[in-house]
Amino acid sequence: MLFRSPGFAITALAALALGVGANTAIFSVVNAVLLKPLTYPDPGRIVQFLMNAPAGPDYGGSATRFNVLRGQHEAFADVSAYEYNGIGLNLTGNAFPEQIHAIHVSAGYFHLFGAPIVQGRAFTDDEDRPGGVRVVVLSYGLWQRSFGGDPRITGKTISLSGSPYTVVGIVGSGFETELDSPPEVWLPFQIDPNSNDHARYFNIVGRLKPGMTASAANAQLQIASDEFRRQFPTMIGPRDSFGIHPFQDAIVSDVRPSLLVLAAAVGFVLLIACANVANLLLIRITGRGHEIAVRAAMGAGRARIARQLLTESLMLSITGSALGLFLGLTGVRALLAIYPGDIPRIGEHGSAIALDWRVLSFTLVVSLLTCVLFGLTPALQASRADLSLALRESGSRSGTGLRANRSRSLLVISETALALMLLVAAALFIRTSVALRTVDPGFDAHNVLTMRMSLAGSRFGKTSEVDQMVRNATDRIEALPGVVEAGVAYTLPLEGGFGIPFNIVGRTPIDGRYDGRGWLGVSPGYFDIFRIPVLRGRSFTDRDEAGAEPVVIINQAMARQFWPQGDPLAGRIVLGQGYGPEFEEPARRIIGVVRDIHDTGLNRNPAPMAYVPMAQITDGITALAKRALSLAWLVRTQREPLALRAAVQNELQQATGGLPVASVRSMEEVVSQSTARQDFDAILMLIFGSLALVLAAIGIYGLMAYSVQQRRREIGIRLALGADRRDVRNMVVSQGMRLALIGVAIGTSASFGLTRLLASFLFRVQARDPLVFIGVPLLLSVVALLAVWLPARRATRVSPMDALRCE
Question: In the chain, what percentage of residues exceed pLDDT 70?
Fold first, then answer.
């Protein structure tokens, strides 16, 4: 029956394939990220520790927090620490030195996550103690790529950033981590059990012991919180307490809301596709009225006829779903291959997105559901046909207008309402993406080259060594033709930063400290490179060196918050007080106030920030920065910055003794990547909204075209009796637009409620944005008008003689 109606079959299959394909694509991501269990042993009992506070949960782990939590033996096993950012290490000794990604982990990490050690072993407790020997575990990929899979590698020594490390083990290729950048080597954390270090730059995880519930564990952590409060009264608020969160929920918390919104959006697309196919089936079944009457006259009952039509619908839905499955998996791979964001658990370029039993089951359920959605109503309507009336008709009926098409009219109204809701959501996402692009970041990203360099290792262990290297390198780079100025910083704008609390000299701190936390070490010239204006005071110079008076520059946000009426240039601050001996330093004089820049994202307001000259950073902070961060080189150029990358890299290698660089980007790329997720979500919503708009237009067009075809005799009589062709056209247009406008009204009303759920995703856009709620209904109405205009024109061309000749 489908081969006998190729036009109908192709149209229906295309609608189903698009609807099912979009749903399969999004579900495959939802499955990999949210539903698929972690590959670790007993993953449901792995938890991440956090600090519950009135301002919100704090997942950051510090040495002091880790030491308290790993002592909770009654409730937890394998309490482990691991870095979430990691560092770059310079692998030398090969033909081509390279920078590799490394993370520090505690000894229990490999057992907790069930890392398959295919050769050698993991770290021992002795190797994870302060002063332990230098050992390293390699990833399978690095072992194969850089060491040719040498089976004798364990026990050998390799050079990492100039220091010798003994390889003790190889992790198998199937080991999965949730980190954005999978580590290539693992190093022992060697956290001092007596540490007073409160810097938070890693995660703390563990496993609930058998029989231990989450509520019982949280009760135990209340005791740990009191213990931590007694040891460090200024590092925890009176209402703060340790807590736990399921590990899988913790690692996907940032992307869960957006994935659920996308899943709901493609669900709308599927409903619209089903409504479209149901309309096509209703039209087709009406044309088969004589056939169905003959079947009934030959003894087929209502159930047999309904079963026949549902079987045809099932074949249609299964074929469309099979096409949709292929289209969805192919499409999601293509989209994720170009996605520059950071969705966890999907692997590099979406490699973890696979066809498993959940995706197959989802597609099967969708195919059965769509069969019921678009096949049941036509089947029931056909089985209730008037047998004597259908047999008297010779296969060409005149129809009675839209009243006979009530079911089709309701489907068109539903399509239009759903399409409008989806278009409103898409428009709000697009408006957010546009709003992000119009944000002034506070700095000039044009013609700025950036690159990263790891200083890990025995070299550059003191601030003076780093400062001398930076001075030599910047002098060499600035001597290059086309270079305006060069400098360094520990982080780039828009990519977050380090957090060190500060106290204002002469004021009584709140709860023992001011929680400003924003801190960045920069070289002289940093503000000139990014053209960040100094609003008051002066910028750093080469004279702000180690032996000079300690100075600091603050941003506008810090000045407004802590000196709303006073003069910040008359103040002094102390950084890192109470945060550990390696962070504490003398009071710094504030010498300038600079313009705010967006350090943590264009969609976040600038936070208080303190800038410190690189030459005046304490040796303790330099050592921590080497361990947790890499150095960012910044070069302002007179022309396209990437054109100078080779020359700049050559000068850096000459000045640093051959250290490699990584992540070479222009600052404009950094800005673009900071909004990548919002842009990608807007593109997807635009695709879904456009698909819904096209499907709704096809639905309206199909209904009106069929209505005109069925009413040819009526229209011919009207014209024969003197009706003006313009009146006939207006009659068809008004009937079609009535349905479209009802759908628009329903969709608009529903959108007012649904958009409140999108408020957290929006930036500088109201959930009930007037431009969206005027423009989208207007757009859909115009498209609907075009969809009814074509059948209306066809109605005016009906010849009365041709329409009445059959009588």
Answer: 92
Structure token pair of residue 64: 């002091």
Residue whose token pair is 């109908």: 8
How far the first Cα of the chain sits from its last, in Å, is 30
Q: Where are the domains of the chain?
A: 54-239, 455-658
Q: Which two tokens stand for residue 556?
A: 């506008």
How far apart (Å, rounded) are the C-alpha atoms in residues 435 and 429? 10
Is 783 in contact with 693 (CB distance < 8 Å)? Answer: yes
| Contact in structure between 598 and 442 (CB atoms under 8 Å) | yes
Question: Could you tell me where the beta strands, DSSP code E, fall in 39-156?
Answer: 46-52, 76-83, 87-92, 98-105, 117-120, 135-139
What is the 8-class DSSP label of residue 442? S
Please tell me the distance from the alpha carbon of residue 707 to that of residue 208, in angstroms, as a whole number: 66
Q: How far apart, in whole angstroms, are the C-alpha atoms of residue 659 and residue 425? A: 49
**Tens-place pLDDT, residues 754-787:** 888 898 889 989 999 999 999 999 999 999 999 9
How far is it, in rounded angstroms, from Cα 321 to Cα 21?
A: 7
CB 709 within 8 A of CB 286: no
Query: Can you tell me the distance from the alpha carbon of 513 to that of 583, in angstroms, rounded to the nearest whole number?
Result: 14
Burial tier of 109 (Cβ tally within 10 Å: 0-12, 13-18, 19+)? buried
Q: Where are the alpha helices (DSSP H) in 232-356?
A: 247-252, 256-287, 289-297, 302-337
Composition of the chain by helix, strand, coil, percent to 5: 50, 15, 35
- Tokens 């929920």 locate to 249
* pLDDT tens digits, 629-667: 789 999 999 999 999 999 999 999 899 888 888 889 999
In sequence order, the 6+-apart residues with CB closer than 8 A to the CB of 91 are 97, 98, 99, 100, 146, 158, 159, 160
Q: Which of 431, 762, 767, 763 lies closest to 598, judged by CA?
A: 763
Region of poorest pLDDT, from 274-278, 433-437, 614-618, 705-709:
705-709
Tokens of 30: 């939802």
Least Cα distance to 138 among 86, 183, 97 occurs for 183
Query: Strand pairing of 76-83 and 202-208?
Result: antiparallel
User: What is the rounded distance in angstroms from the CA atom of residue 142 to the CA atom of residue 185?
Assistant: 8
DSSP-derived pairing of the beta strands 135-139 and 163-171: parallel
Residue with tokens 């692997």: 347
H-run or E-run covering 487: strand 483-489
Is the confidence at residue 338, as pLDDT, over 50?
A: yes
H or E segment to which residue 775 belongs: helix 770-796
Tokens standing for 629?
Answer: 């961060």
Q: What is the mean pLDDT of residues 306-333?
A: 87
- Burial class of 1 by CB neighbour count within 10 A (0 to 12, 13 to 18, 19+): middle
For residue 143, give the 3-state DSSP assignment: helix
> What is the Cα–Cα distance from 712 to 801, expressed in whole angstroms?
11
Give the per-residue SS3 of 615-630.
HHCCHHHHHHHHHHCC
Calpha distance 597→557 (Å, rounded) = 10
520 forms beta bridges with 611
**411 and 699 Cβ atoms separated by less than 8 Å:** yes
DSSP 192: -
Q: Which two tokens stand for residue 132?
A: 């332990």
Average per-residue pLDDT for the chain: 87
Q: What angle do CA 749, 755, 761 make, to 5 degrees?
A: 170
Whole-Å CA distances, 368 to 278, 313, 414, 741? 14, 10, 21, 32
Alpha carbon of 182 to those of 42, 86, 656: distances in Å? 22, 10, 27
Among 702, 736, 700, 730, which residue's Cα sits nearest to residue 715? 730
Pairing state between β 87-92 and 98-105: antiparallel
Mean per-residue pLDDT for 381-391?
58
Helix runs in 384-490, H state only:
387-392, 406-437, 463-478
Mean pLDDT across the stretch 83-105? 82
